[in-house]
């Protein structure tokens, strides 16, 4: 599905997490004030009121920066408020690490419409790459929840795997693992990193090696009735001006009281003063119970579109309308420029676009 079709309001519920993933791109070592670690419910309500008024959508998405189910009661309060205030059916989406108990699983089954669980595949890989916060194995509880939700046919359920060099050339092992649970949607992405990190065993890999093996696995999975997807091919199903909803922008509410357009825009200027502040375009003022939006920033975010990129870093690219610059957050993290181009993402996308069919009908699901 053209990625920009996902019209969602995202809630970064908490910065607390129960896992210690080796490749986590959240701000490691950042000292946050306690009040800035959990989303304020009043801010969430104001964000919903503005969203329902301005966007014509009732799709709500629970996301990081930490693990959203750790704020289970807050997630329930937001869901209840949305159902009371929205004028159309509310769609609830949860992106989780899958480490939660039966009480939460039962609520998710009864309330969540779209569920993505992050799991990196075979147990030995999951336990190494995604241990608990106390460095214990996580695979058993995650697998148990995956089995449970794979049987809930009333909801859209898929898994999201991060690929490191350990499985870069054996991506079919991921498909084989999830196939046993009748998983139909698998979304993958190679581990990415901020420019100052140099952990080669996690982050150093060849883009073409990934692309070759992704394509091979995508085709083999298709024969099994499984959609093996990645952000690189998210817009191969139809042409688009914008790579995703971030460039519209659709709001993401941060734990410290700001509105961002992207999962990379996790905090306001106090905690993230660098170039990623270009993703932040609103601030909640508690005393006024109001969100102040920066129209100049919104205009700049919207400038990341196919026609502008075609005049700059993407000039002459025949696939610009099936990419539109790719992930805004990654490109900005890499280049510091709203109109920047992430060279590795570009290389992979071009490789795949040259070898895959385009415009052959909407993808069955969209991740992120």
Principal-axes shape call: globular
Question: End-to-end span in angstroms?
Answer: 12 Å
Category by helix and strand content: alpha/beta
Kindly provide the radius of gyration, computed on alpha-carbon positions and rounded to a whole number of angstroms.
19 Å
Name the assembly state: single chain
Q: What is the fourth-level CATH superfamily of one domain?
A: Aldolase class I
What percentage of residues falls in helices of 4 or more residues?
A: 25-40%
What does this structure look like?
This protein is an alpha/beta fold and 368 residues long. It has a domain at 3-233: Alpha-Beta Barrel (TIM Barrel), CATH 3.20.20. Helices cover 32% and strands 15% of the residues. The chain has helices at residues 41-54, 72-85, 102-111, 123-129, 139-150, 172-179, 200-203, 207-223, 295-302, 306-309, 328-335, 343-353, and strands at residues 8-12, 59-63, 91-96, 114-118, 156-163, 185-190, 227-230, 252-253, 258-260, 280-285, 290-293. An 11-stranded mixed sheet has the order 7-6-5-4-3-2-1-8-9-10-11. Strand 1 (8-12), helix 1 and strand 2 (59-63) form a beta-alpha-beta unit. The radius of gyration is 19 Å and the shape is globular. The N and C termini lie close together (12 Å).
């Amino acid at each position: 599905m053209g990625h920009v079709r996902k019209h969602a309001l995202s809630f970064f519920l908490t910065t607390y997490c129960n896992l210690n993933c080796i490749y986590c791109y959240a701000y490691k070592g950042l000292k946050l004030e306690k009040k800035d670690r959990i989303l304020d419910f009043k801010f969430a309500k104001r964000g919903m009121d503005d969203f329902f008024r301005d966007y014509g959508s009732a799709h709500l998405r629970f996301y990081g920066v930490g693990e959203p189910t750790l704020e289970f009661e807050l997630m329930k309060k937001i869901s209840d408020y949305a159902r009371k205030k929205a004028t159309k059916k509310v769609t609830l989406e949860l992106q989780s690490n899958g480490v939660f108990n039966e009480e939460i699983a039962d609520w998710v089954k009864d309330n969540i419409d779209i569920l993505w669980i992050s799991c990196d595949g075979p147990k030995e890989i999951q336990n190494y790459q995604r241990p608990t916060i106390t460095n214990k194995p996580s695979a058993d509880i995650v697998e148990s929840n995956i089995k449970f939700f794979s049987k809930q046919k009333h909801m859209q359920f898929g898994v999201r795997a991060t690929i490191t060099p350990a499985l870069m050339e054996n991506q079919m092992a991921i498909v084989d693992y999830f196939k046993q649970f009748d998983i139909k949607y698998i979304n993958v992405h190679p581990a990415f990193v901020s420019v100052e990190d140099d952990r080669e065993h996690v982050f150093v890999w060849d883009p073409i090696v990934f692309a070759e093996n992704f394509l091979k696995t995508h085709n083999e999975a298709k024969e099994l009735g499984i959609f093996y997807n990645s952000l690189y091919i998210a817009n191969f199903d139809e042409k688009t001006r914008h790579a995703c909803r971030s460039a519209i922008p659709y709001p993401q509410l941060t734990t410290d009281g700001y509105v961002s357009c992207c999962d990379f825009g996790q905090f306001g200027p106090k905690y993230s003063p660098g170039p990623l502040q270009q993703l932040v375009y609103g601030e909640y003022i508690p005393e006024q119970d109001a969100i102040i939006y920066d129209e100049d920033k919104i205009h700049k975010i919207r400038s990341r579109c196919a026609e502008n990129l075609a005049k700059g870093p993407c000039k002459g690219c025949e696939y610009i309308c099936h990419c539109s610059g790719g992930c805004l957050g990654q490109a900005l993290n890499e280049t510091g420029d709203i109109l920047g181009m992430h060279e590795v993402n570009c290389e992979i996308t071009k490789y795949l676009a040259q070898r895959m069919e385009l415009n052959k009908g909407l993808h069955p699901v969209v991740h992120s």
